Amino acid sequence: MTALTNMEDYVSESDSDYTSYWRDWFISSRGNEYFCEIDEDYLTDRFNLTGLNTEVQYYQYALDLVTDVFDLDCEDDMRETIEKSARHLYGLVHARYIVTTRGLSKMLEKYKKADFGKCPRVACHSHPLLPMGLSDVPSVKPVKLYCAKCEDAYNPKSSRHAAIDGAYFGSSFHNIIFQVYPALVPAKSVERYVPRVYGFKVHAAASLVRWQSGRREEMRRRLRRLEVDTGFRDGDGEEGDEDGDVEFEGVDGRPAVVEGAPVR
């Protein structure tokens, strides 16, 4: 059943009760919890919609549906297409609206209630997240969640939220809100997990040796593909100087250091 069919079932006795029904339905639908309701004045101001007519199929019909003045009698397939366009239009306008004073205020309230979820990182102690886009271009990247405490991005837990286009929030909103409300900026997380074995810290030198060995093997494989004589011994393949720079004989007979070799 399409959204328009649901709307027909909703029709009330007064026009005032029906005024913002599509937006109410959209915001209350499962999977749309990240969105805030856009003010009708903002939606009806053509300046705020500049350029969107080329981005949305059946733009005028979609706008009529979002603003609840849609009265076209059409087939179900057409209605479904217009409904899809209306959701896309709402998302594009939403990205513009949430960086306005009114939009920031609404998103702030949702942020305080942790409507966008909490950071999964243990050291962040369930700090609330903010939705963000990795691109401002639609259909490029899905929405991510940003934690201001560890300054990292995460995937939404729900598959419904993970399918939301990141362009509906934009790549700047999560930074702008902290510029407008600097008191919200949390203290940065300085806690880091320390690997231990039976209560003792893992020796840093051992980790370094493992990292160097991995990089050395990667470099050897790369040089083999390029058919470059590395100068390694056939036995353990660990020939090199004491500082970790791997050398091989150059064209003039002098040792040449391979670029990118790990240095302690």
UniProtKB/TrEMBL annotation:
PROSITE patterns xrefs: CK2_BETA
Family, as annotated: Belongs to the casein kinase 2 subunit beta family.
Quaternary structure and interacting proteins, as annotated: Tetramer of two alpha and two beta subunits. Tetramer composed of two alpha chains, one beta chain and one beta' chain.
Pfam families reported in the protein's UniProt record: CK_II_beta
Organism classification: Eukaryota, Fungi, Dikarya, Ascomycota, Pezizomycotina
GO-annotated biological processes: regulation of transcription by RNA polymerase III
UniProt biased composition (Acidic residues): 236-249
Protein name: Casein kinase II subunit beta
One MF annotation (Gene Ontology) recorded for this entry: protein kinase regulator activity
Signal peptide start-end: none
Function text: Regulatory subunit of casein kinase II/CK2. As part of the kinase complex regulates the basal catalytic activity of the alpha subunit a constitutively active serine/threonine-protein kinase that phosphorylates a large number of substrates containing acidic residues C-terminal to the phosphorylated serine or threonine.
GO CC list: cytoplasm; protein kinase CK2 complex; UTP-C complex
Region feature (Disordered): 230-249
